[in-house]
Amino acid sequence: MSCHGFGAARVIERDGLTWLPLEPGAPPPEAGLRLVDSYRMDAAELPADVPLVVMHDRGDPPPNAARVVSVASPETGERWLSGLRHACLRRSFWGLPPGSVRRSLERVLVTTGAGDPGAQAYSIAAAVKRAVPDARVELVIGPQSAAGAPPGVFELRTNDLLPTLRAVDLVVTGAGQTMLEAMAVGCPCIAVVLSDNQRPQADLAAEADAVRVVREPSPHDVENCVRDVAASRDARVVLSRTAQATVDGYGSLRVAFAIDELLG
Asked: pTM to 2 decimals?
């Protein structure tokens, strides 16, 4: 197995894997199967010499894909690995113990992802602090974030959110990968839709009563939602238990088994 970062400027080490640079226009490496997760590479243009698996969250999937991994897709059938049970998380999120819920919010985490879509992190963190002024509010500063934390909010810089997610009482996050990780941990979660491709996944989690969703990145709406969740421990307990029942962390194993079947 080899991992390649499309357009990467250097070799990257992450989670025990080495990612090698792959220049745009370069021929794809020889393989028995290709798994593609990229907004920059057109998987439909890959040669059809081996099966193709794609991680997909917007538009139409490539017609040549043998398997489509799409958490938010309503599609079913052999070709589709859909639904929250296929949420792919790192091994450290597999089979975690039940989340614990304190009576009051003492510590809240805010994160909008590595790139901070729409530069929303500062205003969202400020809204959270207004809603729970007595709690310790921490804002994850991503590697591509332009702004720091607002007054009264602590900055957090880390590549591994698992220990923090297990320690905080609430996470306010973009409705992407961190939302899924918070669900697996059993950390009560408010998911803010920061981009259109996050909306179907957020809706699916909300329909399961596993997260509270703020459908537009409005500081006013975030503040009201945080205040509402903070006021009810019972509501946070339901969020914690339902989230872990919905995303158990083993989605990546289910996808791996499906890929193994393709390899035959």
From this structure: 0.91
